[in-house]
Specification:
By secondary structure, this protein is of the alpha+beta class. It has helices spanning 48-59, 98-106; strands at 4-6, 10-14, 17-26, 31-37, 67-71, 77-83, 86-95. The protein has one domain. It has 2 helices and 7 strands, in the order ββββαβββα.
């Protein structure tokens, strides 16, 4: 069974979008990024490109093969697909928790 641990959440802001970011790694070495929309200003869903840009500016590049999941303003977790350090698309996971989202994203 896969396990992972994340750092404490950091609060970040880009434009009017406010979100938290936790960073972790699975026991098999996959980098995990968990974003939670704080429902202040523009949503992460509607500002995904700038959210990814802001946190890569803050923490550095996202390694290829990493998993970036986010909780939207409705509390549902989905995946933000990232290519060459930039947001490229959404992947619907429809997960109820960060753990469930990470497991679904890695499958």
């Amino acid at each position: 069974m896969m396990t992972f641990a994340c750092t404490a959440e950091q609060i970040l802001k880009t434009g009017t979008t406010v979100f938290t970011l936790s960073i972790g790694q699975t026991d098999s070495g996959i980098s995990i990024y968990i974003i939670k929309d704080l429902d202040k200003g523009m949503s992460v869903t509607n500002n995904a490109e700038n959210v990814i840009h802001e946190f890569t500016t803050h923490i550095g590049s996202i390694p290829d093969g990493s998993v970036v999941v986010y909780r939207d303003t409705n509390g549902v977790y989905d995946e933000l697909l990232v290519a060459d350090g930039c947001f490229s698309n959404f992947k619907l996971l429809n997960a109820n928790s960060a753990d469930e989202a990470v497991y679904k994203a890695i499958e």
